[in-house]
Structure formats: structure tokens, C-alpha cells
């Protein structure tokens, strides 16, 4: 195996890792060799060599996408959609996936983001606890127990599992909870070199939430869902404390429109809100990040005076199980992020760079939407369903999220 690892490293101009390998003791060397053989080094080097060919809007055709505004539904439409969704949920064909692979670093929290605690009017609660309470409410309402799948990361999986066990899964049936890990990819320096971390292995990082599809398949979660008769799967993030994870209305809208995928949106607070928006890209549904939206489109309005590109992605997605299977085999495009990362130099000394020094390649969950021609989008009220916690202070902070949550409690 060592010979194979050396061959791979030399083939892709990473001889410095071979030199590093020869400095290690047998146990350390064996771990590094196993990692090299397992990693897709060819892919990350190819991405580096073709940086200009990673996902770019470029000359792609960007068009408005239609959405169903919850406030514009008639009472008859609302009830019809909702009843269709209730039938699916009551038939035990519905599951929930929570994406919880991140750490709470930006919040000044030491641990997985789901273990962050907020002080609400109805008590202090962890983010995971808020999700469990939403699930339990739905279970009581519909007389079922909804399977709950949690996507962790290599970095926080063990901590997450220990935390849930310590808190008794907040009363949720343990047999209905399963964890799986999102994918990883090696970091590569701006000079095209793989880096060695403090653990004396090649540095890796999570490769974006778009890896969820492959991870669902590779970790046996898709198979588990199918064995349990699941037909519809909701996927959302861990940090939106107003996220409606069991919404029969969204299911019913999707069924009625004959689509395999769906999402919720809220309207931009202003044209220059830094948020990704729904659109059609070359005729396929997708999301364009605020940094990628052409300047002339940012403030464009339609005949009703509404922003053409104003439906914000709130990471509230619904999939038919067939769609997840199809997406699990999709080759995802990568977006480039330039980051700072410390590493060990050739002498084993820790280098802490002052400037950004590595490329991180990430796939985004919404890039798989292009597998389909259409998507159902349900536009909801921000104050009812969108209170994310991303920053320690300012916008999307615990303070703003708690204020929205408490206001919702009082309604």
C-alpha cells in the first residue's frame, strides 16, 4: 500500500508529502498511507489546475422562477394542499434530515452548533432541543413517530452523539434517530500543495452541504429510508429556530404541482440583502448567491413592482425519495472558497499564516436542483419561519433570532 501511496503523490506533484512520510514512525506512516490511498487526490489537484472552470455564472442565462405565496392562497387551496400533506405524514411516509455538521465557532461556542443554547421566553433551550420539540409536536398531532436523521461531520460527530446521549435525546425515541457524516475533501495551498495538519495527516475540510446526497447513500441512510417506506424527506439546517420541519402544506403544494423537489422562500428585506435567491439557470431551477448575481439584476422588478430575484433561500427543502436517489449519483460542481489554515512545514513546525493561504472546494445542496426542470417554491413570512443564528452579534445573531422566536410565541 505504501508503494501505491507514493505513486499517487508523485504522479500529482506532491512529493513533499512523500518526504514527510519518511519522517514518521510506523504507526503514523501507516495512517498517512491509508489516507492517501483513500483520498481522491486526483480530483482536488484537477480542481486546482482548473480553477477558472469551477462553478461560475459566466454566460449562463438567469431567469425569474415562479413561487406560490402562502398569503395569496384561497382557503380552499390552502386546505386542499394541507390535507394532501397530512395524508402523507400520517401514512408514515415522511422523514426529517437536519444538517448539523458545523461548529459554533462564529458564535464563540466550543462545540457542535446544535449544542448551542438560547434563552427564550419559554426557557433556555439547545438548538437540537428546539428541533426535537417540533418533531414531538408533529408526532402528537399526527399519531406517528417521524424518523430523524442528523448529518454531522468528522469533526463533530462524536461530540454530537455524546451530547444527545447525555441529554437522553431530549425524550425522542433513540431508535428513530440516526447520525451520518457529510463528506470531506483535502485543502490545497494557493501554490497547489497538499498540507499536513497537527495530526500529521493531510488537512481536510467538509466539502460543503452538497455532499449530503452522496453521504445519504454511502452511509446507508437512503436504504434505511426506503426500508421504512419513506417517500418524502425534509432537509433543513440546525440553526434556524423558527424552521417548520413538518409542514403538510409544503408537501401538498409539491404533490399538486407534480414535482419531486420543493423549497421555501422569504422575500428579501431589501435588494442588496446578502442572501442567495431562487432563479432558473439555463432553464433549470437553482439558487444564485448574492455575490454572483449580476449587478443589473439586483434591483430588477417585475410589472407588479416585486423584485424579480427576491425569493431568498432559507434552507428549507423537501425531496421525493426518488430525487434523493438520483441526486446521490450526481457529479456536483464545486465553488471556490479561499481560507486561512495553519499547517506543519517540512520541519514539523506549525505555521500560522496571516493571510488566506488555501483553496477549499465546496459543493452546495441546491446545485443538484438542476436534475429537474421544475421545483415547487412556497413563499412564507420571514417572521414566521426564518430566524437563523449565524453570527455572534448583529444580523442573524442569537439576539435577533430570539426576538423573532419570542414574538412568534406571543401570537
Draw up the topology in text.
Blueprint: H1 2-11, H2 15-21, H3 26-38, H4 41-49, E1 62-63, E2 68-69, H5 75-90, E3 94-99, E4 117-120, E5 123-126, H6 127-142, E6 148-152, H7 157-166, E7 177-181, E8 184-186, E9 188-189, E10 204-206, H8 212-218, H9 221-227, E11 232-237, H10 248-257, E12 261-267, E13 277-281, E14 284-288, H11 295-298, E15 311-320, H12 321-328, E16 335-339, E17 343-344, E18 350-351, E19 358-362, E20 376-379, H13 382-385, H14 398-410
Parallel strand pairs: 2-20, 3-6, 3-11, 6-7, 12-20
Antiparallel strand pairs: 1-13, 4-5, 8-10, 9-19, 11-15, 12-15, 13-14, 16-19, 17-18
Summarize this structure as a short list of keywords or feature phrases.
alpha/beta, Spore Coat Polysaccharide Biosynthesis Protein SpsA, Chain A, eight-stranded mixed beta sheet, 33% helix
Q: What's the short story on this structure?
A:
The protein is an alpha/beta fold. The protein has helices spanning 2-11, 15-21, 26-38, 41-49, 75-90, 127-142, 157-166, 212-218, 221-227, 248-257, 295-298, 321-328, 382-385, 398-410, and strands spanning 62-63, 68-69, 94-99, 117-120, 123-126, 148-152, 177-181, 184-186, 188-189, 204-206, 232-237, 261-267, 277-281, 284-288, 311-320, 335-339, 343-344, 350-351, 358-362, 376-379.
Amino acid at each position: 500500500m505504501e508503494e501505491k501511496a507514493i505513486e499517487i503523490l508523485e504522479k500529482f506533484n506532491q512529493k513533499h508529502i512523500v518526504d514527510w512520510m519518511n519522517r514518521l514512525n510506523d504507526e503514523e506512516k501507516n495512517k498517512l498511507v491509508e489516507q492517501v490511498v483513500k483520498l481522491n487526490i486526483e480530483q482536488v489537484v484537477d480542481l486546482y489546475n482548473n480553477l477558472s472552470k469551477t462553478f461560475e455564472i459566466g454566460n449562463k442565462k438567469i431567469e425569474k422562477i415562479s413561487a406560490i405565496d402562502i398569503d395569496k392562497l384561497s382557503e380552499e387551496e390552502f386546505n386542499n394542499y394541507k390535507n394532501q400533506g397530512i395524508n402523507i405524514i400520517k401514512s408514515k411516509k415522511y422523514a426529517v434530515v437536519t444538517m448539523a455538521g458545523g461548529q459554533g465557532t462564529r458564535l464563540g461556542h466550543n462545540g457542535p452548533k446544535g449544542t448551542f443554547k438560547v434563552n427564550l421566553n419559554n426557557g433556555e433551550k439547545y438548538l437540537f432541543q428546539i428541533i426535537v420539540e417540533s418533531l414531538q409536536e408533529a408526532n402528537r398531532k399526527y399519531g406517528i413517530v417521524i424518523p430523524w436523521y442528523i448529518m454531522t461531520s468528522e469533526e463533530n460527530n462524536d461530540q454530537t452523539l455524546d451530547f444527545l446521549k447525555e441529554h437522553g435525546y431530549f425524550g425522542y425515541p433513540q431508535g428513530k434517530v440516526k447520525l451520518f457524516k457529510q463528506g470531506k475533501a483535502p485543502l490545497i495551498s494557493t501554490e497547489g500543495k497538499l498540507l499536513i495538519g497537527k495530526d500529521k495527516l493531510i488537512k481536510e475540510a467538509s466539502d460543503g452541504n452538497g455532499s449530503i446526497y452522496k453521504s445519504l447513500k454511502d452511509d446507508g441512510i437512503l436504504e434505511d429510508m426506503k426500508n421504512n417506506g419513506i417517500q418524502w424527506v425534509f432537509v433543513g439546517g440546525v440553526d434556524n429556530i423558527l424552521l417548520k420541519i413538518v409542514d403538510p402544506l409544503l408537501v401538498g403544494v409539491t404533490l399538486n404541482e407534480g414535482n419531486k423537489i420543493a423549497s421555501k422562500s422569504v422575500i428579501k428585506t431589501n435588494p442588496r440583502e446578502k442572501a442567495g435567491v431562487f432563479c432558473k439557470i439555463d432553464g433549470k431551477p437553482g439558487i444564485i448567491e448574492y455575490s454572483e448575481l449580476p449587478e443589473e439584476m439586483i434591483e430588477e422588478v417585475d410589472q407588479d413592482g416585486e423584485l424579480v430575484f427576491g425569493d431568498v433561500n432559507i434552507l428549507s427543502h423537501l425531496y421525493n425519495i426518488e430525487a434523493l436517489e438520483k441526486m446521490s449519483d450526481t457529479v456536483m460542481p464545486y465553488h471556490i472558497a479561499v481560507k486561512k489554515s495553519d499547517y506543519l512545514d517540512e520541519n514539523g513546525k506549525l505555521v500560522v499564516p496571516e493571510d488566506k493561504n488555501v483553496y477549499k472546494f465546496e459543493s452546495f445542496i441546491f446545485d443538484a436542483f438542476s436534475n429537474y426542470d421544475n421545483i415547487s417554491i412556497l413563499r412564507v413570512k420571514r417572521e414566521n419561519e426564518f430566524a437563523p443564528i449565524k453570527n455572534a452579534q448583529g444580523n442573524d445573531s442569537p439576539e435577533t433570532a430570539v426576538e423573532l422566536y419570542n414574538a412568534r410565541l406571543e401570537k
